[in-house]
Amino acid sequence: MSSTVLKASDLTRSFEGQEVLSDVSFELDEGSLTALLGPNGAGKTTLLRMLSTLLTPTQGWFEVCGIPYTNPSKIREQIGVLPESNGYYSGWTAQEYLVYFARLSGHPPDAAKSLSRDLLTDFGLGDATNVPLRAFSRGMRQRLGLAKTLVNDPAVVLLDEPTLGLDPSGQVTLEEYIQSMAEDRGAAVLLSTHDLQEAEATCDDILILNDGQLVSDEHAPTVEDSDVERTLLFRVPREAASTARDVLSESEFVEEISVEETVQSSELRVTIVDSAESTDGRRGSASNRVIRRLVDADVPLLNFEVETTQLRDTFFELTEQ
């Protein structure tokens, strides 16, 4: 049974007498992946800043691995953080960047270098060890940022919009790495995102904030609960439509494919089934595997989305959007 590594109770934060977060309570378990949703101004970033010890609660409390928020230096030893706007020193190499943060976390020089090499390999950056960060794409920088959150082997990882601005293939790749942080490394991951599709496809649990209050703390539908039917929409160049259809038809998860042609592109409407019997039990494994097939086959994805889901309906109802 997973142990609880983060507990928050009645967290409240005010600025100049105005409450921006009010009485927020929840728990995160070891190896869990939880989405933090909410419209702009709901309090998501304020909550993450409190949990990362950059802000102190006005009221309430939280603890990480039994360490109270009143001991921030010890909490920082147990958490990894990737803010939305992460700073990179453009003249450094990827290895220099990770070694720097590993040394800040207390690793001796040789251990820091070894750890940096391992993390760069784990996040698909092994060939870019000595490449200056100015030459990194946004996707590569975000993978490096994820690697940086793990230099202290944290119990809790806090991520603020990590897939924002990535192309479809880059988004899927990053989501897979985020899942592995929870499933393979046992970290409790709190993922702040505006992408409802991403939340439903990758996360175990959902927290929804609205006007500074937690309006939903629910378990996300999983493949273990029942077979879940989803409709994925892919837009590809017209000349790639035939290849895309052939690749998708080979997937065990695909039930039906239809193609609609436009002047410059083709839209494929693909019905898939997440089945407990046919997947490995990972969140959103069917949809991610279907998308991964297209990426691995070098099919250019102009766009992809999941048609309206139960989570979207719930989100709009609770936040009155």
Automatic annotation (TrEMBL):
Domain ABC transporter: 6-236
Keywords: ATP-binding, Nucleotide-binding, Transport
InterPro entries named among the record's database cross-references: AAA+_ATPase, ABC_transporter-like_ATP-bd, P-loop_NTPase
Membrane-spanning intervals of the chain: none
MF terms in GO: ATP binding; ATP hydrolysis activity
CDD domains, A to Z: ABC_DR_subfamily_A
PROSITE patterns: ABC_TRANSPORTER_2
Superkingdom classification of source: Archaea
Classification via SMART domains: AAA
Pfam families membership: ABC_tran
Family per similarity comment: Belongs to the ABC transporter superfamily.
Protein name in the entry: ABC transporter domain-containing protein
Taxonomic source organism: Halocalculus aciditolerans
